[in-house]
Predict the 3D structure of the following.
Amino acid sequence: MYLNFITLSIIFSSLLISQQSFEDFKRQQEQAFSQYKESVTKEYDAYEAAEKAAFEKFKEDVERQWEEFKGSTAKTYVSYDGDLQSRASIDYENGHLFIEVIIDEETADIEGINYYKSKRNDSYRYGYGGPSLFGNFLFILNTSFYPWPQTAGHVSKELSEGERKPLFQGLAKSKIIQKLVKVLSETDNRGDSILDDQLADENGSEINAANAEKFAEKNISGQLEASKDYTGKDGKKRKSYSYSLDLKPGHQESRINKYRKEIVKQSKRFNIEPSIAMAITETESSFNPKATSHIPAYGLMQLVPSSGARDAYKYVYDKDKFLGKRYLYNSDNNIELGCAYLAVIRYNYFKSIKDDEKAYMCSVAAYNTGVGNVAKALTGKGKLKPASKKANSMSSGKLYKTLRKDLKYKETRDYLERVWSRKDKYASLIK
């Protein structure tokens, strides 16, 4: 009896120690996870602060030379050269390529020295009926005692505006051709040109990096837009020139075809409607592989690194991880996490909404503005259960009208309308 009591005491004590050890282990794990989560959050905060500072510095540098700043958006990609004097803007939504260059008068006048010398040299050499010993003698004598002007200011005074005009136009044309070739050489993460199958000449032949210079030489002169004079913040006088090209008819279909297979694949993987994922991608970026917005959000499905992308990555890989813009510019990564994020909203946050159509209405709006704002539009409060209950009590038509009327931000109201009106187009395209 005594031995049994001792045995029971030992077993009970062991159980207490084991329980205590498990609770300590659990607390340690929770503490470690909390610390790791905090470290990842700090990494995101530092990243966003650095990105903002870099952008502001870049913007400031551009504004010193240009009359106005242009930056990339979700549907327009803007590319500057290293010296910031040439830029190309690709408007993927409206199908337009716009190339601009700036030339400061000092640079043009330095180039004009050569022009000035060449012109005056020819005058002395050939001004007496053609090349002659006497003409050469006069040229040498003149250059010895009356050296040609070596300052940009002197050249500017000596050359008339009519004589300077071809200098600027020639420089502008040369820089525009260079920029066209460069932008056609820029690639996405797949190694494809960002203008792959987007430009065509009058015969329908594709314009690419290999034939861009030949195309530009033939077409730019007659289409070079007139210069605009202005003074930059750095005090220099400049002229700006531009050249524009329309993307080919059906340019968006070319981009749709490039990404459709992956969007359908990831949609099915996460059990979401492919047509809605396609409509979201068009509405977010117009299938622009370099899509960027100020939030910041990156890539085809416009994922915010610290929120949507982070939540989606944890959903897919059960791990918290820092994801930068390089990761999100990768189209496969972006599509995977974009579809996963839509699944998180549909099956985690709005899992209580029974009808698929109504659940997707709320999910599409939440993809743009967050689930709390959708809940507030339905009940006036940010709680999800009452919002889901409210959605269940409405017809699909009534819910759609309520969201279109009561969502706080016009951007979100318009976003829901655009996605909802586009999904049917993709439903028939996917089938």
User: Anything to note?
Assistant: Strands lie at 76-80, 86-91, 96-104, 225-231, 237-246, 292-293, 297-298. The CA atoms of residues 106 and 307 lie 48 Å apart. The radius of gyration is 32 Å. Confidence is low (pLDDT under 50) at residues 122-155.
